[in-house]
Design brief:
It is a single chain. Helix content is about 20%, strand content about 35%. It is of the alpha+beta class and about 130 residues long. A 6-stranded antiparallel β-sheet has the order 1-2-3-9-8-5. The chain has a 3-stranded antiparallel β-sheet with strand order 4-6-7. A hairpin with a 3-residue loop joins strand 6 and strand 7.
């Protein structure tokens, strides 16, 4: 399982990379592996605003459909349009080309409650797929 150390992780298996006031969000390697082959990604419109913990879209695989949640509050500034044609990027490169959305942070306070790589690795080890 790949768990980059420069990211923060939510218990709902999203990762977040904060660069200034902009954050990029995707699903973890653990989550994409558990879902298996991703066949469809439903993403929000640019300009949509969400509070921390609110679902902003979903990921569908051959096994299941799973909502994805925003770990912090923000307004969507970009969605990964490539996923419309190639949703399997979430499987092959969940921390790179498989990112889901970019947001303008409006509530960064929940960042303090997210896990670092070591804590997320331990969290994943404590549960079965």
């Amino acid at each position: 399982m790949n768990v980059p150390t420069d990211l923060k992780y939510a218990k709902s298996d999203e990762w977040i990379r904060v660069e200034g006031e902009v954050a990029t969000i995707g699903i973890s390697d653990y989550a994409q592996d558990a879902l298996s082959d991703i066949v469809y990604v439903d993403l929000p419109q640019v300009g949509a605003s969400y509070t921390a913990g609110q679902p902003f879209g979903s990921v569908e695989s051959v096994k299941a459909q799973s909502d994805v949640y925003l770990p912090v509050g923000g307004t969507v500034t970009a969605v990964n349009e490539a996923l419309g044609q190639t949703p399997e990027l979430v499987n092959s490169d969940p921390f790179g080309a498989g990112w889901l959305v970019k947001i303008q942070l409006t509530d960064a306070a929940p960042l303090a409650d997210l896990m670092d790589a070591a804590a997320y690795t331990a969290f994943c080890a404590g549960r079965a797929h």
